Amino acid sequence: MTSFGNWEFTCDLARTCAAYAQVKHGSSENCDCNGCRNFVRVRDTAFPDKFLRLLENLGIDPQKDGEIFHCAQLSPGRHSYGGWFHFVGTLEKTGDFAPIELGEGFIAWLCHSSAPALSRLKGLPLVQVEFNAENIPWLLNEPEPQ
What's the superkingdom here (predicted)? Predict the structure, then answer.
């Protein structure tokens, strides 16, 4: 059993990697809203190293999100985003635990899968990795959402 903060879980690394390998891209590429288009532009620098290592250890491709959403403009050029990924496994210990800070303005937590997953993950036992990022720059050459 593996842990992340107070959560304890199992992860089927081989099945997770195989599922992500069969998916061309994540949900943010399927959306044409300016929030998703902006995130796609900044994604390579949006995730702190600790979060990227967590995703790698779980077999998750950080380019293939389950969902990304724009939360708010925090200040001109600075935005808050949320989103999630999934991995094949089980959540053995869960609760109302505090999210884990993995970088400045970046938190993550685990929960039972309840949100839409990538097509190749559907029907499998899943754990959801959720995040909130508060330091996402606005790079599109168009008005920022409020």
Answer: Bacteria
Residue with tokens 């702190």: 48
pLDDT tens-place string over residues 32-65: 999 999 999 999 999 999 999 999 999 999 999 9
Nearest to 126 by CA among 136, 137, 139, 117: 117
Q: Which two tokens stand for residue 44?
A: 């390579």
Tell me the Ramachandran region of residue 89: left when phi exceeds 0, alpha when psi lies from -120 to 50, beta otherwise: left
Diameter over CA atoms, the chain: 46
For the whole model, what pTM was predicted?
A: 0.95
- Find out whether 111 and 130 touch, Cβ atoms under 8 Å: yes
Distances (CA, A) of 9 to 3, 12, 91, 129: 6, 10, 4, 12
Burial class (CB in 10 A: 0-12, 13-18, 19+), 144: middle
Q: What's the angle, vertex CA 52, arms to CA 22 and CA 138, rounded to 5?
A: 95
100-103 vs 106-112, strand pairing mode: antiparallel
